[in-house]
């Protein structure tokens, strides 16, 4: 029996939402690059590559739909002898479909319409698309190749369809964003499908940051026995060609099985934060970033991520001391900047604060000092950073973490003032782990910053523990209540004291109005405070 062969060039690139011409050129360049070293039968791109993903309400624009399909028609001419599989939107009548098109011989020879539309967490595809209702199969070298798009792979129904259609190979094009454990989940899922149906699966995923989402890439291929045979880079553009050959039993297997690197979750999260920050800054054309450096761990980690993302020459930190700021904080903030090679300035806020306080003296007469005065310090710092941003065009990165954001341990128009929150979805306990991880690459964060008790330094001898439970406990409650929607009773069953649970849940619920006004930031958990958690500010449920 003559063995049948098929090769797939996986293209893992970073398209920009709405940049139709740029994404088309990205596709052309990738085809040319791969073609210099190999001649795969199929060039496999990712979901909605031509428009970028997610296009959100841009998809409702007729001119975008027309431009994207025009780009597809032009792409047909680039490599007519090969098969090009690529994602794009297409309007038919009043319906818009999320398509995987097969281009060959200067035309679209097959068009598969995504059947399973995700409508959970950050996804709302049913707002835009109609589902397809039939499988997509085309022939290459006498082999039947099945098509699927992202969410389709998470539903056995679509794989079963392709198996019933006698597919020899399944292609799955994706725009699957990263979160903790997601890469492991994907691998287990795809391996399970490949094993169950004795079908090799090639999985191509987008890479890059888009607003709060980060796409990790990690494209891969599985043999018919569910064994992973190749993996593309995580959080980087990459291209690789995978080759399959039919064996005696007719199943396709790869003759070459590459070594698959071990997964390292801390490394994945750190790279996600770096890429998310980098792409938000660069895709929106900011010349650099500004960070309020407190001498604490959150601003230190934010500065390290920013320097790794866009280079130290485009990062500036500002220590803005007041009478409650310790010498240690001033010293550590300066040392951090020196270690990172970034420009650092000191702007005391004492005179600014006194000016505000004097102006408010009559209105505050007879009233005892309280949290108002603490918040005023923070707002002075926010005013300084935003003034610098206005003058320079540089983006202010806020430094608050998920734990603080959850319970409202922040000041509106103070430390929440800015354009992007790198650590917005990072729990405080993970902030410490990531800081230690970053120091394994090169020692940039002073140990004293990591070891000292966290403090906002807005009052004498202030520590976070004065206002909040232990971060181990706090982060556990946030995970259960926010990410898993557990009730207070369920949380108490884990052994956490009822009074602590009641207090933290109440703070989370009351702080929704603050979160609505805070900048977006990189999502790295299964549910962040962004598109995938929509709670009414005005509500009376169990408050």
Give a verbal description of the structure.
- It contains 17 helices and 20 strands.
- The chain is of the alpha/beta class and 543 residues long.
- The chain folds into 2 domains: 5-255, Nitrilase/N-carbamoyl-D-aminoacid amidohydrolase; 268-465, 3-Layer(aba) Sandwich (Rossmann fold), CATH 3.40.50.620.
- It has a 7-stranded mixed beta sheet with strand order 5-4-3-2-1-14-15, with helices on one face.
- It is elongated, with a radius of gyration of 26 Å.
- It starts with a strand and ends in a 26-residue tail after the last helix.
Secondary structure blueprint with pairings:
Layout: E1 5-12, H1 20-35, E2 42-44, H2 62-75, E3 83-92, E4 95-104, E5 107-113, E6 136-140, E7 143-149, H3 156-164, E8 169-174, H4 182-197, E9 201-205, E10 207-210, E11 213-216, E12 220-222, E13 228-231, E14 238-246, E15 252-253, H5 265-283, E16 289-292, H6 297-310, E17 315-319, H7 327-340, E18 343-346, H8 350-359, H9 361-364, H10 371-392, E19 395-398, H11 402-407, E20 420-421, H12 428-441, H13 447-451, H14 471-483, H15 488-492, H16 498-510, H17 512-517
Helix pairs in contact: 1-2, 5-6, 5-12, 6-7, 6-12, 8-10, 14-16
């Amino acid at each position: 029996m003559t063995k049948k062969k098929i090769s797939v060039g996986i293209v893992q690139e970073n398209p920009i939402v709405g940049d139709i011409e740029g994404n088309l050129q990205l596709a052309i360049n990738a085809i040319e690059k791969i073609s210099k070293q190999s001649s795969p039968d199929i060039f496999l791109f990712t979901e909605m590559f031509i428009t970028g993903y997610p296009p959100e309400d841009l998809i409702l624009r007729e001119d975008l739909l027309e431009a994207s399909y025009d780009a597809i028609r032009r792409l047909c001419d680039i490599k007519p002898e090969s098969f090009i599989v690529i994602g794009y939107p297409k309007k038919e009548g009043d319906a818009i479909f999320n398509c995987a098109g097969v281009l060959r011989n200067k035309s679209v020879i097959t068009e598969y319409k995504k059947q399973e539309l995700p409508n959970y967490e950050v996804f709302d595809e049913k707002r835009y698309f109609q589902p397809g209702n039939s499988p997509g199969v085309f022939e290459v070298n006498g082999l039947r190749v099945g098509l699927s798009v992202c969410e389709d792979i998470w539903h056995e129904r679509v794989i079963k369809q392709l198996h019933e259609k006698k597919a020899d190979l399944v292609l799955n094009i994706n725009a699957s964003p990263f979160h903790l454990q997601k890469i492991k989940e994907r691998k287990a899922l795809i391996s399970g499908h490949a094993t169950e149906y004795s079908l090799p699966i090639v999985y191509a995923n987008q890479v890059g940051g888009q607003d709060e989402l980060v796409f990790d890439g990690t494209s891969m291929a599985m043999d018919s026995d569910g064994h992973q045979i190749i993996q593309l880079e995580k959080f980087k553009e990459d291209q690789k060609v995978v080759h399959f050959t039919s064996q005696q039993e007719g199943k396709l297997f790869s003759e070459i099985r590459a070594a698959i690197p071990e997964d390292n979750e801390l490394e994945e999260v750190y790279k996600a934060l770096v890429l998310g920050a980098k792409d938000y800054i660069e895709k929106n054309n900011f010349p650099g970033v500004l960070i309020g450096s407190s001498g604490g761990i959150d601003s230190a980690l934010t500065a390290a991520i920013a320097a790794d993302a866009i280079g130290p020459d485009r990062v500036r930190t500002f220590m803005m001391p007041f009478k409650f700021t310790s010498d240690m904080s001033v010293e550590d903030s300066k040392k951090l900047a020196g270690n990172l090679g970034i420009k650092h300035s000191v702007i005391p806020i004492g005179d600014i604060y006194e000016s505000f306080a004097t102006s408010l003296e009559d209105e505050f007469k007879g009233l005892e000092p309280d949290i108002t005065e603490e918040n005023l310090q923070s707002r002075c710092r926010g005013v300084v950073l935003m003034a610098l941003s206005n003058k320079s065009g540089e983006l202010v990165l806020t430094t608050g973490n998920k734990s603080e954001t959850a319970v409202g341990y922040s000041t509106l128009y103070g430390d929440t003032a800015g354009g992007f929150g790198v650590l917005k979805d990072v729990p405080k306990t993970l902030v410490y782990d990531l800081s230690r991880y970053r120091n394994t690459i090169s020692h940039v964060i002073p140990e004293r910053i990591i070891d000292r008790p966290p403090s906002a330094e807005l009052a004498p001898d202030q520590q976070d523990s004065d206002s909040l439970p232990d971060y181990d406990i706090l982060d556990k409650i946030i995970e259960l209540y926010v990410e898993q929607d557990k009730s207070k009773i369920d949380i108490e069953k884990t052994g956490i004291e009822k009074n602590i649970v009641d207090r933290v849940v109440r703070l989370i619920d009351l702080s929704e109005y603050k979160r609505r006004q805070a900048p977006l930031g990189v999502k790295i958990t299964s549910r962040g405070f962004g598109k995938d958690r929509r709670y009414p500010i005005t509500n009376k449920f169990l408050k």
